[in-house]
Amino acid sequence: MLSVETPTTYYTATKKYDLAFPDLEQVIDAEVVVVGGGFSGINTALELAEKGVKNIVVLEARYLGFGGSGRNGGHVMAGIGHDLEKIRKSVGDQGLQAVFEISDVGASIIKSRIEKYGIDADFQHGYGYMGLNKRQGKLLQAWEKEFKQLNPNHEIEYLEGAAVKSIIGSDYYSCALKHMGNGHIHSLNMLLGSAKAFVGLGGQIFENTPVLEVTYGNSITVRTAKGMVRANKILWSCGAFLDRLEPFLHRRTINTYAYQLVTEPLSVDLINQISPIRGAFSDIRPVIDYYRVTNENRVLFGSATKAIEYIPNDLKAWNRGLMLRVFPYLESVKIDLAWGGPMECTANLFPQVGTVPGHPNAYFVQGYSGFGVTPSHVVSQVVAEGMLGGSRHWDVMSSIKPTQVVGKDTWRNLICTLGKISHQLVGYTNGRR
Fold first, then answer.
1. How many C-beta neighbours within 10 Å does residue 115 have?
2. How far apart are CA 409 and CA 406, in angstroms?
3. Residues with pLDDT less than 70, the chain
4. SS (H, E, C) the chain
5. CA distances from 180 to 14, 94, 99, 129 (A)
6. What is the pLDDT of residues 13-41, one digit of tens each?
7. pLDDT, tens digit, 9 for 90 and up, residues 339-361
């Protein structure tokens, strides 16, 4: 049976780093304790270590990348959140401009880190934002102008009609925005390579160490089954696996599910037909299909249910049906693995950062709403700046007050379904439908 709780994924099956860390069996005094060993936790810890912070401890309940950081599409793409207009009322025009300025720097951060630490993450340039109609084409043309403004040296080009075939072998789309500054990575190798760099700078990581209790104060105490960390600051970065440990944070996101598959290895000719640029792709609908070519010549395809929230009984068959709409000539291709997992969403579909009310030394980051691989590298820089005294971008992002999701523990499926339907309807007004 395929499980969305403890899955075997493409990433766990092909990881290149054989890293394992002990569980915590002692009492440690630290400057910072990080709860959660995904991209946000490891990236922020690494940012702090690079800035000279000593005695940083990361606690992971299972293993590094167990959550969304090891179950995603591996896309290196532009943007933070689903729609920046949703935060305009909270941050104003100047605040929105500040977020816009950093919305497309994630790829450069990832590439810089790969180069700096020699991380073997299969980085590949080439991205396509795909459109299915004229309304989406107009939005993609607007994005072309914005992306060129942010990255004038990158090859960014709007494509229409037959020109779309220059990046993807599919008749499903009528237009596309090619962004050669973006691309894709093996996300688990990226995470593990970053963790190795963090440890190399003196950081400590403990796996299989679930947190049982946190006591706030001038000194924060984090108790685990066999040990304890006393720290000056804490960072909550648990994503969809917070497990009610922090009530304030628990009430401000809701988990929905996404699902992926990976095909058997394909011939070079077939891969070149699928994508002449060997890139990653996503449409721009409110609930996207996303896919890419892997380093081993496989297709990794993912999506989520479009309106009704449910977990399909057969993940291989469900995702394969979506893949064949885009690539019908893959009918005879075998599916090697399929998996899924929860992702935490916020009411405005924008990441939440800040401090827990009443506890200025208790920081948090959560709520990427399905877009976390690249933005987490940007947001982690912002969070590190916040933990070290603040910055313009921290002030803006932390000023967005997280909205409580009422009834999430009882009515999760219903709330997610209503949210998806609303998201689809709004898509008609913002050009995504």
1. 10
2. 8
3. 1-3
4. CCCCCCCCCHHHHHCCCCCCCCCCCCEEEEEEEEECCCHHHHHHHHHHHHCCCCCEEEECCCCCCCCHHHCCCCEECCCCCCCHHHHHHHHHHHHHHHHHHCCCCHHHHHHHHHHHHCCCCCCEEEEEEEECCHHHHHHHHHHHHHHHHHCCCCCEEEEEHHHHHHCCCCCCCCEEEEEEEEEECCHHHHHHHHHHHHHHCCCEEECCCCEEEEECCCCEEEEECCCEEEEEEEEECCHHHCCCCCHHHHCCCEEEEEEEEEECCCCHHHHHHHCCCCCEEEECCCCCCEEEECCCCCEEEEECCCCCCCCCCCHHHHHHHHHHHHCHHHCCCCEEEEEEEEEEECCCCCCEEEECCCCCCEEEEECCCCCCCCHHHHHHHHHHHHHCCCCHHHHHHHCCCCCCCCCCCCCHHHHHHHHHHHHHHHHHHHCCC
5. 25, 29, 22, 11
6. 999 999 999 999 999 999 999 999 999 99
7. 999 999 999 999 999 999 999 99
Residue type, 141: Q
Residue 193, token pair as written in the block: 């390579």
Structure tokens at 140: 């993609």
Encoded amino acid at 306, one letter? K
For residue 158, CA distances in Å to 137, 142, 181, 388 come to 9, 10, 14, 41
